[in-house]
Structures are given as structure tokens and as C-alpha cells.
């Protein structure tokens, strides 16, 4: 995992200049393995520089397991991955009084990609908002332009019985939630808590707002994703009530009609979508939705799979490095006990290899290794249940086993 400064500069230069930006996205001069034609990735290389943000809670444990697995992968496949640590979340607040210090941002920006574990914990929950770990995450997304968040929920056959839903409902489920990540009530102004001058009562408010260009660019990502999957896209909104959702719907229809005529587009109100995801999830292929609806629906979709501990995600923009992270939180209640499941972070590393580093075959190896570990009946506590005949292991052993298998699959 060593990597010279000179080649690091070269790769970053390539990352920054490859392709040209149009109002409708980035056209690359090569067809890389990101999502489709509109997004840029780093060209395939013999060495990469990746920032690793270990974060809080179980973050360091699952990062250690993931690093072992990546070391086994680079050894087997003959390329180099320099993993450079940086701070985000509670640990960054403690060390630098900022949940995402500018040095971390600069380092992430100049890396080929970013791998993030998880952030947060009760220690920082009472802090003012700007000194909460979550604010660091939001700053990172905004500053790095990571407007598209891909959250796959694919039920692995080995884990069907780990879901709280019936086997016939979840078996074969394969849904991709494309969540807009830098707009909506998360970032809209005005926002705040004020005192009403007339009643003297406090009033809290946020603004659910989307511009046409924001909707257009996420719709294009969703179109690209849907084209690579089942060519079926469900756009989720609340257009029966919200003006912002009406714009969302109108623009999505326009983008799909013009650029993705082959994609079968449908629309669903968010309350119905929440219900349908549980009632009959196999009706969905790709879902596109705004930031807050996507936050909620992607957590819901994750439970189809049985455990949050299995789900990776990718946050990407039009150019520059993406951020790849498990969708689970920092689980402070189990931190330091060697019981966390590192598989979501390992699968996030696979997404990084596929979408950012132009290494789809290596991504396949990691995914196959995870499947093979499950086939062997090895389980962390979150995916183990009584009478399944499987062997319970901790985070370290799970990581070691995946690393061993990576050398052979
Ligand atoms: C997520 C998380 C974050 C979000 C929090 C931690 C700010 O729930 O990534 O889904 O709301 O986006
Ligand atoms: Mg969430």
C-alpha cells in the first residue's frame, strides 16, 4: 500500500482535467465504469490514493477489517491503494473542534476516492448544530458536490430468513434507491427557530426547495442507473400536496421523455411508496426521490435485506472523488466489543472500485468473497438467528475470513 507523491499528483491531475463539463453533465472521452454516460470517474490506474474516514463508534473496527480485505485484494490483483486517514464526525470535533475540518475536505478533494465508515454518538448529541457529527457529513456532501446517493437493497439468498418480512415477499428483491443528496429541506433557506413577534411563541422552519437544474441532474443519474438495471424507474414525490414535488414530477417526466425513452417511468406518492415497499417490494427496480424522502425510504428498504449491516452506498457528483460508506450508523452501543458487521463497509469498498476507480473486476471479487463467506455459514450477530446452523463470529474474524477468501475467489 505504498504510493509515491509524484504518481499521486499525476492521478489527481488526470482526475481534475479528464472530460469537459456541459450544462447537462460531464462528457468523458472514455467510457468509464461509473454509472453511465453522464458521470466521470478516475481512469484505471496501477495505483490510487484513497482517503479513509474511520469516524466514530464501530467505525475504526469495521475500517480495520476493510483495510485487511483491501490489502488482500491489491496483493492478489497487483495494484496499489494508498489509504490515507482523515477526520470526520465526533473524533474530528474532539481533535479539531470541527466535524469536518478544512484539512479533511482538502485531502478528500485531492484523493481519487473516499471511503467512510460511520459517524456520531451520544457524546456529541447535545452540541450546538454546527458542532454535531452530522453537520460534518452534510458539509462534506455539499462541499464535494455529492448530489447523487445510490443505495442498493439487494436481498442475498443466504440472508432471506434474516428479514423481518416473509420469505415470499423478500426473496429476489433488488431495489436501487437513487436519493438526491445536496438539496431539499436539508439545505434549503430560510431555516431556523425564531420567536413569533405577535404570539411570542417559538416557531421552527425549514424550506423544502428544488431548482429545476437540481432535479434534472438527479433524474439523469437515475435514468443512467435504470438503463443499466431493469429500465424501470419509479419517481417518488408528494405532488398531491407540495408544489416542490410538482416541479420534481414535471422535470423528471421531461428528462425521461427526452433522454431515456426506453425507461418505463412511473410516479408514486411517498406515503404510498412507504407502504408498497413493505407490501410488495419486488414491484420496484430503481427509485428516484428527493433528499428527505430518500433518507426515510432507504432505511426502510434496508430492512428488506435483513440488516443495516449489509448495505453499502455511493455518493457521487459530476466530477471528482465520490464517497463510499455503509448506510448504517456508528452503533455506539456495540462499539469496541468486536461484534460489528464489517460487510457493509467492505461492499462499499466494492462500490468505490466499480464507480470511482474503474476496477469492476476487483469489485466483483469483493462481492463474491462476501457471498462466499455467507455461503460458509459465517455470521456476525446482526445477521444470525436461532436455529440457522451458522457460526457466530466477531468483526475481526469476519474481516479476516473475507480477506482469506479474497485471495482465492
Ligand atoms: C443518512 C443519515 C444522514 C442523513 C444523517 C446522519 C445526517 O441518516 O446518511 O441517511 O440524514 O442523510
Ligand atoms: Mg438516513
Automatic annotation (TrEMBL):
Q: Which residues form the Isopropylmalate dehydrogenase-like domain?
A: 49-402
Q: What does the note accompanying the cofactor annotation read?
A: Binds 1 Mg(2+) or Mn(2+) ion per subunit.
Where is the protein localized?
A: Cytoplasm
MF terms in GO = 3-isopropylmalate dehydrogenase activity; magnesium ion binding; NAD binding
Q: Note one Pfam family from the annotation.
A: Iso_dh
What the entry lists under InterPro entries is as follows: IsoCit/isopropylmalate_DH_CS, IsoPropMal-DH-like_dom, Isopropylmalate_DH
* Chief location bin: cytoplasm
Which cofactors does it use? Mn(2+); Mg(2+)
What pathway annotation does it carry? Answer: Amino-acid biosynthesis; L-leucine biosynthesis; L-leucine from 3-methyl-2-oxobutanoate: step 3/4
The GO biological-process annotations, alphabetized, read as:
L-leucine biosynthetic process
Which domain of life, per UniProt? Eukaryota
- What does the record give as EC number? 1.1.1.85
**Per the record's keyword annotation, is Iron-sulfur included, yes or no?**
no
Q: Which residues form a coiled coil?
A: none
Instruction: Extract the signal peptide range.
Output: 1-19
Q: What SMART domains does its record include?
A: Iso_dh (SM01329)
Enzyme type, top EC level: oxidoreductase
Provide the catalytic activity annotation.
(2R,3S)-3-isopropylmalate + NAD(+) = 4-methyl-2-oxopentanoate + CO2 + NADH
**GO CC list:** cytosol
Matching entries from HAMAP family are given as: LeuB_type1 (MF_01033)
Family listed? Belongs to the isocitrate and isopropylmalate dehydrogenases family. LeuB type 1 subfamily.
Q: How does it assemble?
A: Homodimer.
Function, as annotated:
Catalyzes the oxidation of 3-carboxy-2-hydroxy-4-methylpentanoate (3-isopropylmalate) to 3-carboxy-4-methyl-2-oxopentanoate. The product decarboxylates to 4-methyl-2 oxopentanoate.
| Classification via NCBIfam families | leuB (TIGR00169)
The protein depicted here goes by the name 3-isopropylmalate dehydrogenase
Organism the protein comes from? Corethron hystrix
Organismal lineage: Eukaryota, Sar, Stramenopiles, Ochrophyta, Bacillariophyta
